[in-house]
Design a protein that fits this description.
heterodimer, A: alpha/beta, Rossmann fold, seven-stranded mixed β-sheet, four-stranded antiparallel β-sheet, 13 strands, B: mainly alpha, ABC transporter involved in vitamin B12 uptake, BtuC, two-stranded antiparallel sheet, 72% helix, globular
Chain lengths: 269, 410
Amino acid sequence: MSEPVTSESAAPSVTGSAASGDPAPLLRLHAISKSFGAVQALRHVDLDIPAGQVTALIGDNGAGKSTLIKVIAGIHEPTSGEQYWLGRRVDAHTPRAAAELGIATVYQDLALCDNLDIVANMYLGYEETRRAVLNEVAMEVHTRQTLADLSVSTIQSVRQLVGSLSGGQRQAIAVARAVMRDAKLVIMDEPTAALGVTQTKNVLDLITTLASRGIAVLVISHNLNDVFAVADRIAVMHLGTLVSSGPAANYDTASAVELITTGTTTRAA
Amino acid sequence: MSLDTSALETEAAPSSRQRLRALVGGDLGLVPVLVALVALVIYFQVRNSVFLSAANVTNLFIQAVIYVFLGMAEVWLLLLGEIDLSLGWVAGMAGSIAAIVTNVQYAWPWWAAFIVALAVSAGIGALWGLFVVRLRLPSFIVTLAGNFIVEGVLLYILDHVFQGGGAPVQEKVLSDLTNGNLTPTWTWVFVVATVVVSAVVALSRERARRRAGLANAPLYRLVVKLVALAVFGVLLALVFNANRGSFIPIQGMPFAVPLVFGVMVLYSFVLARTRFGRYLYAIGGNPEAARRAGIPVDRYRVYAFLLGGLTAGIGGLFYVSRLGGYSSSSTDSTVVLYAVAAAVIGGTSLYGGRGKMTYPVVGGIILAVIINGLVLIQVSATMEFVVTGVVLLAAVTVDSLARRSQTLLK
């Protein structure tokens, strides 16, 4: 196996296997920097996120993972750097602009209304109506279809209140909501944190299903077992810099831990 | 696609736990409250047989109207986790305006008076809403201040603008809101039409779901509900159509009953079947989620305050109609507390996100039953406060327990 490419030198060419010969990746970040006053949270981050693959973003607390996904989700405007969507330069610097491109973010808090049922949550803000009246039948049919497509089989009834669901089921609803709105890139922030074994497996299966449907998935996780279970590609951040990225096969747990903690690796995995 | 059959595969909870969850999660809806209502009615009827006489039942419904309207007004706010403590005086303001401008002195047509009165009450509500969203002030404090302000302005108007310290109702439509009755024939027409329309709506909804291949609740539940509605309607019609006059015959359903019913149906429709209603529930459940879904949360907050004021204004029209006029001693600041009580006793959550417009109707009737019944069994007025307080405390306790066990079971 080749050694993971380290990108501290921040070459303008793109890292990892999706190199220049391949078609343009779904999203390419080039030399993205972000400072908050004197604090530089991101330094010259280069990252490719290809369609149909799971990219895991790993790093210690404060490494800049959250800042990076907020830049991608349009919440933070980068201080410098460029973003390319399917090879085309884009400036998606508002959540709405990012959403219009097809970027959906599933935050840790999931943003679900416990007092509403699954259908209402799936359609929140995008309800189907007929003559100003909610078209519950159409929404319910479509919700069931979407959940079935994603092989979410643990939901008893889509008319259950979301407050009565387990953590894994809630995660599934939040993801399904993104998919139903034709998301092309789904960003998931710590999707398996605080989940039990079975529920974690269900969520990981869901992530794999998303990728198999051609959707790009960017997952932040602290759990390296989960990362190696689902990731096609891995990107490691350390102190605001993307220190390494490449196919998951280029890494093992030891080299990943070393990169997370020190920013470099001495091992040829 | 088989969501329902594959349901039990992995992490489905044991059914006993789910049944418990449904039980404490408020899924029983109005059933416990209706049981309490029936118990109260039986108790008062045993203690004094006048209680269920046609005259008293009619009187009781008219008594309940103000609580029902103010309760529905509070539901708009409670759904968002807000409250409006000024609604009692806002209602008084709307009623006084209507009484004053339709007075022989000014002689406005009733509809113009109603429009102005309701515009004022809605405007006052919206004003509090603006304070709450713009300055991020708690609605409790804003509307407590508002309560004093509206009270002062209204008393000033009654004492200075309109001489004599009171505004008598001198207009027929305003008076008829609570004093006029449908003819016995129209009473039957209303009851039968309500049952038929309910059945048609429910069945067509059921058919649309079946056509789309969606599961329906078992048919017997719908039948039970419709039969209960029909029985209740027939009983009401029989009571209202019995002669309750002493010298001249008085018969028929008071206008107030179909009017309250109509407002309740309209509001329920808005809450359950439109985006507007859906967004109110969403904001009450999780404002951050609503905001991220693109819902203009602050604007909806102001709408809720406006609708609260408007609804209280409607209640004020009925209130002044029943009292035959409005004077500086007609009301006091406790009326609004009965309004909150009506909403909460019915099952509306104080924490936001849970409640229906049917709840304050039942809650308002329960309050009227308690107040009316305690008078009939000659319990002192002080006990009325105690009993009302105990009922409210019980309702809030149930609300809080339901909430807590829901989180525990998660």
